[in-house]
Specification:
The chain is globular. The two termini are 21 Å apart. The protein contains 8 helices and 11 strands. The chain is of the alpha+beta class and 244 residues long. A hairpin with a 2-residue loop joins strand 6 (173-177) and strand 7 (180-184). It has one domain (3-234): q2cbj1_9rhob like domain (Jelly Rolls). The protein binds fe (ii) ion. Residues 124, 126, 213 line the site of fe (ii) ion. Fe (ii) ion binds at residues 124, 126, 213.
Length: 244
């Protein structure tokens, strides 16, 4: 079993892991390079740049997923950090998903304005999207998600999760929108299952593909976070095909 799957194959379905400072700095550098051309003036420190983008007229440009995805070169830089390499060394089947069919691993970030619930999506389990055809992985493989806060209000963590919900079944409706099937799910009946993820800047939450979760909005502060999906061979006994 890979380390990542051992983090999530627990009764809670998630784990909190430390993210090295050097990886946080690298991530900021990648995002700064992307945002700087949209800023109202040059030479801003990273936090001032984020505030400038939030206030500025270009925020809509920052909302689209295409804009928020690392380019191939940024992905290379990120993946060759020891944080990732340690996972790759330990499980040779491991890779980062390409659900957007870019031809390289999909790593993306999100900037959320304080007080604007429309900047985050509804509660869901990631496997719903995969089941509805948003990307595919090879047979005998599975997924594990990682969410990393880069800036967030300590009083209003940017992600809610439902401990143990990966072992429950939930019904969602599916609607066809923008050329894709999307899940529609009401948060109300499961609200009591959700807690703020116990994750701060300098940590990541690694969670099961079936775990319920959703983005949260601070009433006052912006949030910057990033995420990716690991794919690895599924070594759970029930899924291993005997060799003879
Ligand atoms: Fe998700």
């Amino acid at each position: 079993m890979s380390k990542l799957t051992s983090y999530v194959d627990t009764s809670n379905g998630f784990a909190i892991v430390a993210v090295p400072d050097s990886l946080l700095r690298l991530t900021e550098e990648i995002i700064r390079d992307k945002l700087t051309p949209l800023a109202s003036r040059s030479g801003l420190e990273f936090d001032a740049l984020l505030a400038d983008i939030i206030r500025g007229k270009h925020f809509d440009a920052v909302k689209g997923k295409e804009f928020r995805m690392f380019d191939a070169q940024a992905v290379d830089r990120w993946m060759y950090h020891d944080f990732c390499q340690d996972f790759f060394k330990e499980d040779p089947s491991l890779y980062i998903s390409d659900e957007e069919k870019l031809g390289y691993p999909n790593i993306y970030w999100r900037l959320v304005r304080g007080g604007l619930a429309s900047d985050v999506g509804p509660v869901h389990a990631d496997h719903w999207f995969w089941d509805l055809g948003h990307g595919s992985i090879p047979p005998g493989h599975r997924r594990v998600k990682t969410w990393i806060p880069l800036r967030q209000d300590p009083q209003h963590v940017g992600l809610s999760i439902g401990p143990g919900t990966h072992r429950m079944d939930f019904h969602y409706e599916k609607v066809f929108k923008d050329g894709k099937y999307k899940p529609v799910f009401e948060r109300g009946p499961v609200n009591h299952l959700l807690i703020p993820a116990p994750v701060r800047v300098g940590q990541a939450v690694v969670f099961h593909d079936r775990l319920l979760h959703g983005g949260e909005v601070s009433p006052v502060q912006l949030r910057l976070s990033m995420e990716l999906t690991w794919v690895m061979r599924d070594t759970a006994e029930s899924n291993v095909i005997p060799s003879s």
